[in-house]
Design brief:
Strand content: 25-35%
CATH superfamily: Ribosome hibernation promotion factor-like
CATH architecture: 2-Layer Sandwich
CATH topology: Double Stranded RNA Binding Domain
Helix content: 25-40%
Number of strands: 4
Structural class: alpha+beta
Distance between the termini: 54 Å
Shape: elongated
Number of helices: 3
CATH class: Alpha Beta
Number of domains: 1
Largest sheet: 4 strands, mixed
Strand order of the largest sheet: 1-2-3-4
Radius of gyration: 20 Å
């Protein structure tokens, strides 16, 4: 694992070193859940609105073998959004593992529509 596995981008937001290191330190934990993770893209955004609710959003995309996993979170604090994003991404990885395990352990009968010749 290296720092190239995590790509951080920002919209309407200056990415400070403290913010980058916070994201890298927290998201690095996701790589321990699954060794098949190719890349992790984190997009942090600031969306000003008149009501001052849910101004900060964090979107995470896990590029993994198979379909990518995408999660987004909005809150009134950027660090809170990052924490919630980490929780949702970890939950999504665990759910995927559980479904793979269920699928692997269940036996399915195979029906062949054509009649096979007897030897």
């Amino acid at each position: 694992m290296n720092s190239n596995d995590i790509i951080i981008s920002g919209q309407n937001l200056e990415l400070t070193e403290a913010l980058k290191t916070n994201v890298v330190n927290k998201m690095q934990k996701l790589f321990t859940h699954d060794e098949r993770i190719i890349r992790l893209r984190i997009e942090l955004a600031y969306k000003p609105n008149k009501h001052h609710h849910n101004e900060f959003s964090a979107k995470g995309r896990i590029e993994i073998q198979g379909p990518d996993m995408v999660v987004s979170v909005e809150s009134d604090d950027m660090y809170k959004s990052i924490d919630e994003l980490l929780v949702k991404l970890a939950r999504k990885i665990r759910r995927r593992h559980r479904l793979e395990r269920i699928k692997r352990n269940s036996l399915h009968e195979v029906e062949i529509p054509a009649a096979l010749p007897k030897l």
